Amino acid sequence: MTREREPLMSWVLYHTFKWSLLSPMLHTYFRIKIHGVENIPQNCPILVVSNHASYFDPPIVSNCVRRPVAYMAKEELFKIPVLAQIIKLYGAYPVSRGTADRAAIRAALECLDQGWAVGVFLEGTRTPDGRITDPKKGAALLAAKAKVPFLPVSLWGTDKILQPGSAIPHAVPITVRIGKPIDPPNSTTKSELEAVTQKCAAVINEMHDLGR
Question: What is the pLDDT of residues 127-151, one digit of tens each?
């Protein structure tokens, strides 16, 4: 039986950080526009799938969907005292890079079972222009196993935040579009996972093509 929401302490920490720092920065420095917030389920676990072009994408997504979003983080971070406890509260779970990490898959499923929104970048890595061209089926497998819906999210403009030769984030306009939830696959067959994966990618790319 899944919980309806993430742990209370994580929810409190999320809102403290969001309203004291992240949200003011996004609205004043990046002049963010957010469309589709009415599509966000607030009382059930969901799998947030999006495009990916910047290191800033995870906190931006989490801020815009109005609830904590659990993401994979490299396992080395979980060996650092204090930091490990903090990122766990934010929902981070470890992954061993460069391997088919079944433990990370189990951790993601456990987060969903605890009521979290779990974030997955559909391409698995950053792309130069933010469009998805080679979506991976991992998100669909998670959705099928956990029986939770997808929430498609498009990030526009984040590819320009960090520019060559500069370590300072540029004050570029950002637009986030949130689509309607998409039902999970009915099975874990390759064809079913592929079909739903392509559907999610198409929805995200269509929103991204709308631009600012």
Answer: 999 999 999 999 999 999 999 999 9
Report angle CA 190, 131, 207 to the nearest 5 degrees.
95
- What is the C-alpha to C-alpha distance for residues 139 and 141, in angstroms, rounded to an integer? 5
Residues in the chain predicted with pLDDT less than 70, given as ranges, are 1-2, 97-101
**Separation CA 7–CA 14 (nearest Å):** 11
Contacts by residues 22-31 (CB-CB < 8 Å, ≥ 24 positions apart): 22/59, 22/63, 23/63, 26/60, 26/63, 26/174, 29/169, 29/171, 30/157, 30/161, 30/171, 30/172, 30/173, 30/174, 31/171, 31/173, 31/174
Cα–Cα distance measured from residue 173 to residue 30, given in angstroms and rounded to the nearest whole number: 5
> Please, which residues bridge with residue 119 across strands?
48
Cα–Cα distance, 28 to 173 (Å, whole number): 10
- The 3-class SS string of 65-105 reads CCCCEECEEEHHHHHCCCHHHHHHHCCCEEECCCCCCHHHH
Give the pLDDT score at 3: 78
C-alpha to C-alpha distance for 141 and 135, rounded to whole angstroms: 13
Supply the pTM of this predicted model: 0.92
